[in-house]
Design a protein that fits this description.
single chain; 64 residues; mainly alpha; 3 helices; transmembrane; Cbb3-type cytochrome oxidase component FixQ; transmembrane helix
């Protein structure tokens, strides 16, 4: 099975560029993500982390 896939992939022109493009996209995504995490303001992180704990905007449960 692997010989079939390898032989098929070798017949495609420029197939070596696809792994390089995917590596570049992966690297850029995580570089931008790390940059955003380290430059985010502490107030924004605190506000977003408290969203699940807020009860003001949730509808009240009605008793049966």
């Amino acid at each position: 099975m692997l010989k079939f896939v390898k032989g098929y992939m070798e017949s495609i022109d420029g197939v070596a560029t696809y792994p390089m493009i995917s590596l570049l996209i992966f690297f850029l995504f995580f570089t931008i993500l790390f940059w955003w995490v380290f430059t985010a303001s502490k107030e924004h992180i605190k506000e977003v982390s408290e969203i699940p704990l807020e009860t003001e905007n949730q509808p009240k449960e009605e008793s049966l």
